[in-house]
């Protein structure tokens, strides 16, 4: 499809593509003031995407269809579907936790899970799956990853995740593996505090980075950078140039889109000023700022910085070029407009429920 080139876009348009706010997908009247304001911001600011929480599949299908019409540029519609549609929304097939899938040690089970996840996600308009979790389940006191990870062995995590990535992306949904460079060996929840990895990047190379490197080889199209302070660095990975531009892009040769983890999390809110939350990730080589607080102000500050700072504008242009490249792929893979009632034929199909039970 025909999309603009980043170097032809205004500072305001560039800033919009860098932002991906959250939206509560539960039922809301289209004319509710908050919904009207959100739709107006999507259109006026040319926001790059939305991550969905809550609501029923029918609600989410309505909102992805509605928001698509509000934006002049195709949008990312993402969700944390780690256990399938039913793990985020009020209905949908829900699978066991990742650790159970890893314990089963079955590539066929991983492929079946991914097939159901992608089929149900596609029926409601989701086109970015924030997963699979590529962290290792090797720290019993980890308060946030634990059973969300597939296994403690990097090779087994790679085997399971390879099937998930291949199957999900075959249906035209981008996988964004997380939480780079590895949230497994931490004892702190980044939703509350900034975790510190007591390992250098060279030490991470021997274990934690292996599933991420393999996922890149499998063709994974996106990555989510964690709010994790690696030993010897100044900022968390999501804001650290030596981690994103240096390690991920230069050394590991990743060419896809990089999302920050949610910027509203305590690891960021308690340690960084609002401008730093916006500028540091882009300067580090990140592409999409996930769940920024104060969306209009975030857009204004980014626009002003892009207009005033030639170096920062170049970094923003590079990010938007990667974003638009992925959006071209998503648009090419997007199904023709499905009947609005198709969701009732797909979500929670008896076969899907049977697979989850098995």
Structural write-up:
With 358 residues, this protein is of the alpha/beta class. Helices cover 46% and strands 10% of the residues. The strands form three sheets. A seven-stranded parallel sheet has the order 2-3-4-5-6-8-10. It has a two-stranded parallel ribbon with strand order 1-11. Strands 7-9 form a two-stranded parallel ribbon. Helix 3 (57-70) links the parallel strand 3 and strand 4 (76-79). The model has no long low-confidence stretch (mean pLDDT 95).
What is this entry, summarized?
This protein is an alpha/beta fold and 358 residues long.
Q: pLDDT under 50 segments (min length 5)?
A: none
Helix and strand string, N-terminal first? HEEHEHEHHEHEEHHEEHEHHEHHHH
Distance between the termini: 41 Å
Beta-strand percentage range: 5-15%
Helix content: 40-55%
Whole-angstrom Rg? 19 Å
Average predicted local confidence, pLDDT: 95
Number of helices: 15
Largest sheet: 7 strands, parallel
State the shape. globular
Structural class category: alpha/beta
* Strand order across the largest sheet: 2-3-4-5-6-8-10
């Amino acid at each position: 499809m025909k999309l603009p080139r980043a170097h032809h876009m205004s500072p305001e348009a560039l800033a919009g593509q860098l932002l991906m706010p959250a939206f509560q997908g539960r039922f809301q009247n289209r004319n509710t003031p908050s919904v009207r304001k959100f739709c107006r911001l999507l259109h006026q600011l040319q926001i790059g995407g939305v991550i969905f929480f809550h609501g029923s599949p029918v609600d989410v299908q309505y909102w992805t269809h509605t928001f698509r019409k509000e934006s002049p540029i195709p949008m990312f519609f993402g969700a944390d579907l780690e256990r399938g549609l039913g793990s985020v929304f009020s209905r949908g097939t829900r699978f066991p936790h990742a650790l159970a899938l890893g314990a089963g040690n079955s590539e066929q089970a991983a492929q079946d899970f991914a097939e159901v996840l992608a089929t149900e996600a596609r029926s409601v308009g989701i086109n970015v799956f924030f997963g699979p979790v590529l962290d290792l389940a090797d720290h019993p006191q980890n308060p946030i990853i634990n059973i969300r990870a597939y296994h403690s062995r990097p090779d087994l995590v790679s085997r399971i995740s390879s099937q998930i990535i291949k199957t999900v992306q075959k249906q035209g949904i981008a996988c964004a593996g997380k939480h780079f460079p590895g949230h497994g060996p931490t004892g702190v929840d980044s939703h509350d505090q900034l975790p510190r990895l007591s390992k250098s990047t060279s030490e991470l190379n021997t274990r934690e980075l292996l599933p991420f490197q393999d996922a890149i080889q499998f063709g994974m199209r996106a990555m989510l950078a964690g709010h994790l302070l690696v030993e010897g660095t100044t900022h968390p990975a999501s804001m650290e140039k030596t981690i994103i531009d240096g390690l991920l892009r230069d050394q590991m040769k990743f060419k896809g889109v990089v999302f920050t983890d949610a910027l509203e999390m305590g690891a960021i809110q308690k340690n960084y000023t609002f401008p730093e939350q916006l500028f540091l990730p882009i300067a580090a080589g990140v592409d999409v700022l996930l769940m920024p607080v104060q969306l209009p102000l975030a857009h204004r500050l980014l626009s002003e910085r892009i207009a005033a700072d030639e170096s920062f504008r170049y970094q923003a242009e590079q990010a938007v070029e990667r974003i638009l490249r992925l959006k071209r792929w998503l648009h090419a893979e997007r199904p023709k407009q499905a009947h609005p009632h198709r969701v009732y034929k797909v979500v929670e199909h008896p076969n899907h429920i049977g697979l989850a039970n098995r």
